[in-house]
Amino acid sequence: MSDTLLRRSELAPPAEPRPGQxxxxxxxxxxxxxxxxxxxxxxxxxxxxNGIVSxxxxxxxxxxxxxxxxxxxxxxxxxxxxxxxxxxxAITFEHVSPAQHDLPIEMAGTIGAVGRSSHTFALAAxxxxxxxxxxxxxxxxxxxxxxxxxxxxELRLLLLSQVWPHADTxxxxxxxxxxxxxxxxxxxxxxxxxxxSDTDAVGHVNNVAVTRxxxxxxxxxxxxxxxxxxxxxxxxYWHVARHEISMLGESFYPAPMRVCVGVTGEIGPTHFTLAxxxxxxxxxxxxxxxxxxxxxxxxxxRVLSAALRNRLERNRLVG
Length: 319
Prior knowledge:
This protein is α+β, with helices and mostly antiparallel strands. It has helices at about 5-10, 20-25, 55-75, 155-160, 205-225, 305-315; strands at about 35-40, 50, 50-55, 85-95, 105-115, 120-125, 130-140, 190, 235-245, 255-265, 270-280, 285-295. It has six helices and twelve strands.
């Protein structure tokens, strides 16, 4: 293994998680005993970035786990769009510790809460007894026209029967609620061609592909500000401690996707927050909030340089 892989794979999360993060809010979510459902997942080389499971790789595991939890609860006969229809409304990822590429990974999940027309999945990734990542997915029941609708009583009872007492979900911050819907409010914009391989069985750009577009935007913004996306260099490594993504509308192939990025909120000594939005044919189809901590090659928080701080200030949201 190269020196770069060793350094990247040893990165640790920031020593002091930001207030409101699940690591502080509910330690029970870090325990294997808090989850009734587990599945082993093979780690492929395409899931790996510099020796650890990448953010998009983990997003794929979470998407598979969410559907497996639903199938386990509803049964094969009730799973799918034939009987009940639903869409993913939001997904949140929280990094706990690096997921090593050469260790087995198990994904865990359960139902965290059930609302009038929505339900949440409490998700986690484990390597042995060590929790490496936490996730939360919000599903919404929809009618034939894909509008939010009350959850049918039969489905609601099935979901309520599986709510796990320890699986408190991530705090719903709705941090993206006040983000602008205007593409011109974001100082950094990248455009990507959508691919047919991005689509799902019903023709939408799928949930993992949406996560990939957000991730591409983060990395493109980092490269534009620092000239690199590695652990080396004066800018340090940008560690995404938490990424909260909201799906606001459907995206389709082959229209291009515009990924917009801007700085929002406080710029701290070693951390800052990026706001993102996806636009397709003038419509805002998704937004996200990413909490970034800057780390050095040993995984310790690194103070932002004056030059980087100035560049971040120049890339704040407009208005």
